[in-house]
Write a structure and sequence with these properties.
Elements lengths: L6 H31 L4 H7 L8 H7 L5 H26 L14 H9 L10 H18 L6 H7 L13 H18 L3
Helix pairs in contact: 1-4, 1-8, 4-6, 4-8, 6-8
Protein name: RiboL-PSP-HEPN domain-containing protein
Organism: Flavobacterium fryxellicola
Length: 192
């Protein structure tokens, strides 16, 4: 990977790689495996009223009507928070931005692009990686506000035509493509 010259981006790059990709993604993969290994003894099942056919904590979680997809959602949510942090620090340290920004300005990527980058002669919408990041932010939005279920707004903002009320499948392929796009954004910002 090319060396980053910008100290702000170096810091953001380290945080992105060490916390989100290594810790949060690792947890989303390893917690279900760990739970499969947490075997319930018959005595514990009897004491807690857990059905005898349930062997481990993983099966118990599934039997309660839950699943582990929320961990993948948290990975995307964390990655998008990293992008917000990156953009905020980059813009505040390298651009003279005097206008007041609302608290969630850096979540609204179209506003960031229009009000900051396009004014500086750079349209991030021309970059493939930015489109992938914008998709990740829409997945983040439905993960936070709709438990990952697709709504009309998601389809409108992404240009996708996925079934309404179906769950967006967040798998490691999607997560890694999002991470790669964020890496490309960091390297791109370092060229500005």
């Amino acid at each position: 990977m090319p060396e980053l010259s910008n100290p702000i981006l170096k810091g953001a790059h380290a945080i992105f790689n060490n916390i989100t990709r290594n810790v949060v993604l690792y947890s989303s993969d390893m917690i279900p495996i760990d739970h499969q290994g947490r075997i319930f003894s018959n005595e514990l099942k009897e004491a807690l009223g857990i059905p005898i056919e349930i062997k481990n904590f993983y099966e118990y979680t599934i039997s309660l009507g839950s699943d582990y997809s929320r961990l993948k959602m948290l990975t995307i949510i964390s990655a998008c928070s990293d992008v917000e942090f990156l953009l905020k620090h980059f813009i505040e340290n390298y651009y003279d931005i005097t206008e007041n920004k609302t608290k969630n300005f850096y979540q609204r990527l179209d506003d960031v692009n229009r009000n900051v980058f396009i004014k500086k002669g750079v349209d991030l919408n021309n970059e493939v990686f930015y489109k992938k990041i914008k998709l990740a932010f829409q997945v983040r939005h439905i993960s936070i506000h709709n438990m990952g279920f697709i709504d009309e707004g998601f389809n409108q903002k992404t240009g996708l035509n996925l079934p309404i009320n179906s769950k967006f499948e967040i798998n490691n392929i999607f997560i890694n493509e999002s991470f790669d796009a964020i890496e490309e954004l960091i390297l791109f910002l370092d060229t500005l």
